[in-house]
Amino acid sequence: MQEDEKRKKIEFRKQMEKEVSDFIQDSSQRKKKYPRMNKIERSILHDVAEVAGLTSFSFGDDEENRYVMIFKKEFAPTDEELEAYRKGEEWDPVKAEEKRRLKELAQKEMEEEALKGPRKVCPNSNYRDKYSHLIGTVAAKDAAHTLEANKAYGCVPVANKRDTRSIEEAMNEIRAKKKFKRSEGEGGGPSSSSS
To answer: Is 104 within a domain?
Structure first.
């Protein structure tokens, strides 16, 4: 059985070598599509194409539906062409050129929009109503118009929000607070423990 398989592989390789040789000699052909093949046959064909100095690709989703296409080096496929084959579409240079032109037009339009400046944004809802529970129900509209913070939440200057202490200073302060709490819990203060 193994001998039979080996013989079939050798025969298949010879057949592929002949087909690839004919393909190379035919100046009218730029690419060639082979029918569906199994994994071993595809690997043999890829090897034969590589030895012959050709470019080869496998396409297809399922393992059973995969096929090989070979290309002459001087007519190697573009990325767009490969993408079309991967999607299972036929490559049409005219359609590809049209898609490329449309893509360029869309890109130009986006660049022109960006140069015009920011567009005026009109929200779907009024943020004052949406966040009235945070701003305050009665004074929501007034607070939003005057841009004053709700006094219930406090107003802290930016300078007070930054902690300028070093890590060591912060850790020492935390330790001191813990020590003070422990000493309060033991006997009501540090002076009562000495009596």
So the answer is: no
Is residue 189 a part of any domain in this protein?
A: no
H-type helices in the chain, by residue range? 2-25, 39-52, 79-86, 93-116, 127-130, 132-135, 140-146, 158-161, 167-187
- In whole angstroms, give the CA distance from residue 37 to residue 189: 88
**Rg value, the chain, Cα:** 38
pTM as predicted:
0.48
> Does residue 105 lie in a domain region?
no
Parent domain of 159: 127-183
Query: When comparing pLDDT for 105 and 112, which is higher?
Result: 105
Q: Report d(CA 103, CA 88) in Å as an integer.
A: 21
Q: Which of 91, 115, 140 is the last residue of a domain?
A: 91
Q: What is the pLDDT of residues 58-99, one digit of tens each?
A: 888 777 788 898 988 888 888 888 888 887 777 777 877 888
Same domain flag for 87 and 131: no
